[in-house]
């Protein structure tokens, strides 16, 4: 790791929207109360040793210029090339704690004073790594808004539109760490970027239906209306095939995919099974042979971090929008 030079990091961290970074908040600031997953949570001080789980959550911190407030992150090494991202300096400056999910042990070893993770993005009942368990250890948590449990079932997630979840987290983190101007600048830039894509959607035409394929052969894992792909697809000019599913990331049946006949399939690229293997499966899977997206080979690939809540979502909207504008819906 290169030595962390705080002044240089604050001055030079890439933002993607030209926002100015305020000086880091002081540790003697007053307590901050935020609304997180529908609950008011009070933080007695500004965290100084934040530990994050997974790439999207980690890059939210980097986008806000908060590398100096981080003690480390956990992330599998299957999330693509990190050397060319706007926040690549963050990966060089902050310790990679684990190539698996966070555990109590590595959080304690890092002397964390805040864990920023999400349900199924680190927090899990299996293994007892939950906000309540961390609270018993004296470690507060912040939960990724995309992953908030909504109470419809034991595990269903999502309480607001995906981009609103992104903006809510940026706003909350900006308030907590005293970088509210930075957060507001990022949000304004993202909204402008998304609006520019929306303005290019052809008026009056039918929107292509898009199926998000994450993984799974017996049953596909996909996005309902509360995961980031739903609004990425919508703002790009399409319609999420599973928009009616009141959950974020979830499993559906292939029969529903076939019946709804998507015009386009978006592959989420990550994991041991790469995008080309996923594409080969979709093109050779007999039940899908008459699906329009498969017949016409309208399959596009986006990275995992593009498709989970992250500061890369607006750029993903722009890339998908450019592709969808080339797609007809006449079968």
Automatic annotation (TrEMBL):
Lineage: superkingdom: Bacteria
Span of the signal peptide: 1-19
Fe/B12 periplasmic-binding domain sequence ranges: 49-331
Keyword Flavoprotein attributed: no
Tagged with keyword Signal: yes
Pfam families: Peripla_BP_2 (PF01497)
Keywords assigned: Signal
Gene3D superfamilies, sorted: Nitrogenase molybdenum iron protein domain
Family: Belongs to the bacterial solute-binding protein 8 family.
Protein name: ABC transporter substrate-binding protein
Organism: Streptomyces galilaeus
Source organism phylogeny: Bacteria, Bacillati, Actinomycetota, Actinomycetes, Kitasatosporales
């Amino acid at each position: 790791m290169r030595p962390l030079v705080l002044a240089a990091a604050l001055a030079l961290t890439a933002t993607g929207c030209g926002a100015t970074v305020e000086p880091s908040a002081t540790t003697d600031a007053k307590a901050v109360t935020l609304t997180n997953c529908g609950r008011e949570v009070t933080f007695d001080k500004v965290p100084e040793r934040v530990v994050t789980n997974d790439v999207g959550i980690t890059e939210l911190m980097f986008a806000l210029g908060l590398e100096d407030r981080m003690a480390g992150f956990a992330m599998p090494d299957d999330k693509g090339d990190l050397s060319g991202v706007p926040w690549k300096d963050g990966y060089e400056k902050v310790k990679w704690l684990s190539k698996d999910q966070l555990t109590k042990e590595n959080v304690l070893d890092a002397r964390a004073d805040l864990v920023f993770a999400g349900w199924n993005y680190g927090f899990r009942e299996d293994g007892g790594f939950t906000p309540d368990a961390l609270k018993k250890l004296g470690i507060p948590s912040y939960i990724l808004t995309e992953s908030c449990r909504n109470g419809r079932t034991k595990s269903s997630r999502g309480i607001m539109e995906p981009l609103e979840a992104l903006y809510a987290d940026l706003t909350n983190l900006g308030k907590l760490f005293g970088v509210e101007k930075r957060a507001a600048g990022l949000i304004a830039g993202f909204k402008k970027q998304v609006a520019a894509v929306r303005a290019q959607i052809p008026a009056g035409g039918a929107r292509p239906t898009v199926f998000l394929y994450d993984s799974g052969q017996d049953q596909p894992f996909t996005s309902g209306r509360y995961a980031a792909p739903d609004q990425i697809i919508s703002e790009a000019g399409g319609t999420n095939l599973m928009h009616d599913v009141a959950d974020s990331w979830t499993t559906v049946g292939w029969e529903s995919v076939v019946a709804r006949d998507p015009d386009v399939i978006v592959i989420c690229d990550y994991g041991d099974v790469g995008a080309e293997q996923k594409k080969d499966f979709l093109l050779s899977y007999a039940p899908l042979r008459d699906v329009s997206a498969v017949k016409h080979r309208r399959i596009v690939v986006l990275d995992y971090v593009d498709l989970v809540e992250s500061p890369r979502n607006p750029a993903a909207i722009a890339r998908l929008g450019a592709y969808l504008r080339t797609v007809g819906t006449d079968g």
